[in-house]
Amino acid sequence: MKDCLQTVVLILLTTLPSAAQMAVAHEPHTYFETSLPSLAPAMNKPVVRVNGTVLTESDLQREMNAIFPYARIHNGAFPKAMEPQIRQGALQMIVFEELVYQEAERRHIAMPPSRMQKAIAEFRKQFNSPDEYREFVKEELGGSQQLLRARVRRALLIETLLNVEISQKAMVSIAEAKAFYNSNPQRFRLPEAFSLQTISIIPPADATPAQLKEARKRAENAFERAKATKTYEGFGVLAERISEDDYRVKMGDHNLVDRAKLPVPILQAALRMQPGEVSDLIQVDAWYTVFRLNTHRPAGMQKFADVQESLRKELQQQNTEALRSQLNKRLRAKAKVEEL
């Protein structure tokens, strides 16, 4: 689901280019159903009937643009290899949203006038001027304020039902997250790791003896200059200037590297060093490397306090997906859905 199923403002704006950039792929958008004539007759072509309600190519295209917003800056074109999958995902989504809307109507969910008024007011604020707002209503809604209110109401009903059936039920408490943490200790174990920066001199793969000798000379010079640095920044700037490995573009920084992934000579040196120290010149195969140790993290467990929020979000996302799938199955089980 979108965060908090998104506000009605974003829901309404899914027909505008800026809104498409906010869309999340394969997630419900609860925007208005399209029932107005289109300048392009093909856009009014029926694509699916849901319990008697017809959804059109226009509805489908809008959802496809939400799933793949970059189509808008490519004249509405989708990557050919991806288009069938995007289209199928969009079809499933508009059917799901229509089923949710119909279920909300069946339950007679009330929509207070005050909430309607607030949603419309927030929507109008998104436009730069009253004229821009009126132009949108004219082009997208045939100038009908009644249709605008109907679409706002539809969007809010979908949002309300999804909030009751999914968002509220998907919430994960701190106690539940802690229980998961305690039950899955392996998930939160941290391997011993080292954070380091490197400056490497790399001779050609088919280097001649003369080239190898010259590489050794450059490596010794790099080592002397690296030893003279005193800070992370100093070593990093030097790495950007003279290092020949791929990490030079990141100030030589490898971030945290699992002990098991370090070459033996570098690991042996790192185990003897303190953070902030620069190593001796080390040869690994034909490479020459000097590194700065920034952090040595012992093996251990992540603290619950450090993972609490990210874990809750992860578990809530899992719950959301499961609940959404269950709701979709329940609604489809008693629905008549016909692709046209």
Question: Can you tell me about this structure?
Answer:
With 340 residues, the protein is α+β, with helices and mostly antiparallel strands. The protein folds into two domains: 204 residues, Triger factor/SurA peptide-binding fold (Orthogonal Bundle); 107 residues, Roll (Chitinase A, domain 3), CATH 3.10.50.40. It contains twelve helices and nine strands. It has a four-stranded antiparallel beta sheet, sandwiched between helices. A three-stranded antiparallel beta sheet has the order 2-1-9. Strand 1 and strand 2 form a beta hairpin. The protein is elongated and about 80 Å long. The two termini are 27 Å apart. The N terminus is likely disordered.
Q: Would you kindly provide a brief summary of this structure?
A:
This protein has helices at 8-12, 17-20, 57-67, 83-106, 113-125, 130-141, 145-170, 174-183, 209-227, 232-242, 264-271, 304-333; strands at residues 46-50, 53-56, 189-190, 193-201, 253-258, 282-284, 287-297, 300-301, 337-339. The chain is an alpha+beta fold. The protein folds into two domains: 3-177 and 311-339, Porin chaperone SurA, peptide-binding domain (Triger factor/SurA peptide-binding fold, Orthogonal Bundle), CATH 1.10.4030; 192-298, Chitinase A, domain 3 (Roll), CATH 3.10.50.40.
